[in-house]
Amino acid sequence: MxxxxxxxxxxxxxxxxxxxxxxxxxxxxxAHVARLARLDLSEExxxxxxxxxxxxxxxxxxxxxxxxxxxxxxxxxxxxxxRFREDEVTTESGLGRQDVLDQxxxxxxxxxxxxxxxxxx
Amino acid sequence: xSIPSIVEAARALREGSITSVGLARQVLYRIAMVEAxxxxxxxxxxxxxxxxxEEADQAFAEGRDIGPLQGIPIALKDNLTTRNLETTAGxxxxxxxxxxxxxxxxxxxxxxxxxxxxxxNLDEFAMGSSTENSAFGPTRNPWNxxxxxxxxxxxxxxxxxxxxxxxxxxxxxxxxxxxxxSLCGVVGVKPxxxxxxxxxxxxxASSLDQIGPITHTVxxxxxxxxxxxxxxxxxxxxxxxxxxxxxxxxxxxxxxxRVGVASQLGGAEAVEPDVEAAFFQMVSAMERAGATTLEVDxxxxxxxxxxxxxxxxxECSANLARFDGxxxxxxxxxxxxxxxxxxxRADGFGPEVTRRVxxxxxxxxxxxxxxxxxxxxxVRTLIREDLARAYRQCxxxxxxxxxTTAFRLGDRTDNPLAMYMSDVLTIPSNLAGHPAANIPIGxxxxxxxxxxQVMAPALEEALMFQVASAVEELAGFDTxxxxxxxxxxxxxxx
Lengths: 121, 494
Hints:
The complex is a heterodimer of chains A (121) and B (494). Chain A is mainly alpha-helical and 121 residues long. Chain A has helices at residues 30-36, 43-60, 97-101; strands at 107-108, 111-112.
C-alpha cells in the first residue's frame, strides 16, 4: 500500500510556472538537408522526417529568444587547454594496417576500394 | 542463492569461500532463466567467461592477484569496442563488426582481472531513453516485463538488476546511465566529463559522452570507477591531473553537508506524484541525518532540454559521418561513391538516428549554424553559470533522476518530444560536465523502482559518493528483483 508522505519538505519548494519563450517558425528544406547528410531517403520518408524535424526545431529554437549578449560558448566543461604530443608514429593504439583493412567491405592491396567518385564524360 | 555484490564477491574469492567458476556459472544460470524474457544482451560470451573464470581460479590457487576485479563477471554496453568480440552499437550499420581493439575502459577492466559476460543492448548509437531504438529489438524491465528498462544503457541496467552480471558499464550523454539505473532500481554513475577515457567508445556527442558504472551498490560503483578512471594519452580530452580518490570520503555521513534542491528540478511539473513524494521524503531524511537543506534557483536549467537537443544531434551528425560504407560496416552498392554512401547510410541507420542526423545537419548548415548550434552552446554556458552560482550556496544538488518510473513499451515511441522529456532532470549534468549518480530509494504504487539523483561540482566525485552512500543507507532499498521460480519475472511477457 502506497502512503502519501506528509514530510516537512513537501510543499516547501516553490512551484514555478515554466518560462514560456515565444515559439519560432522554422523553414527546413529537408531534401537539401538529407543530401548534405548523405541519406538516400524516399519521398515518403522525407515527408515524415521533415515534419518531425520541423516540430522539434520549432520547440528547441525558442532558446533563440534568450539574451546571450556577451556570453561565450562552452567548448570543454573543464578548464583544459590544448594538449600536444610529439608528431611521431606510435603503436599505442595497437592497430596494424591489416587489422584495419580486414574490416573494410572492399579493398585492393593496401587501399579501400569505392565506386567511381567522379562521373565519366 | 542471491548474486553477491562486487565487493562481497571480491572478498569471498580471496577468502576461498567461492570460486570464479562458481560465480560465472551462477551468472550463466540467471541468463538461462530470464534472458529470454528480457533481451538484455546482444552477445553473451559464454566460452570467454568460463575460460576466464578457470584462469582466475588458477591464479588465486597460485597466489597471484592481478587486480581488484580478478574473477568478477562484468557486462559491457555494446558501444564499447571489444577486441575479437562483435560490437554493433545497436545498429544495423555495424552488424557483424568485430573490432580489432579494446576500448581503454575494457583494457583497464581486463588488466584488473574482470571477466566479460557479454555485450548489452542499447538504443541505436545510444540515442534514446527506452532501449526500444535498438535495431535488434527492445530490452524489457526485470521489475515488470511490460515496461521499458530506460535507456540508452537499458541492457546493462537490466542485466545488472536481474543478476545476469555483477556489474556493468554504460555511457551517459543526456542521462543514459542514470535514467535506466533509476528505472531498473540499481546504482548508476556519470563521472565528471574527461575523467574516464572515451577511446573505444563509439562516439555519439563527444562533448557530452561519458562512460560510467552500473552496479547494485555505491561501493561497487566506486570500485569500478577506480579501475576505469585515469588519464589516457589516447583520449586528448581526458583529464590529465590527479584527483582525490573517488572513495576517499565513503562513510563520512551527512553532517554539515549543504544539500540544494532546485524548484526547476525537484518540483518539475512532469514529476509523478509517487516519485515526488519519495524524493521529498529522502530530502527530509537527509536533513534528520545532519544535512542542511536549502532551496536554490537554476533559472536557465529549464532551457537545458532545448540546448541539448540542438547540441547532441549536431555532434551526432558530425560523428556519424564516419559510417559511409568505406572502411567498416554495412555497404549498399551504388554507381558512384556518393550514391553508395547515401544508400548505405539510409539503409543502415534506424529512424531515431536518421532523425537526429537530419536535425544536427540542419543545425550546423550554412546560414543556421549561429542561430541554432551557436546559441545552444551559449545557453550551455548560462546553465553552467547557474550551477556554479548554486554551488556557492550548497555542496551537492539533489533531484529525482527520472520524472517517472518505468513506462510501458510503445508508450512514447510515436512522440519523440515525450521521449526526450525522460532526460529533463539528467541533462544539466551532461551540459555542465559534472558528476551525478542515481541511487534507488523505493518503489511506486506499481512496485516500480524510484531513483534519487545526487549531483556534484566537476571533479567532486568523492563528495558525490559520500552523499550517495549516505542516501543508499537511509533508503535501505533492496535491489533484488522479485523472481518467482515457477512464473519467472513479473509482467505479461513469458
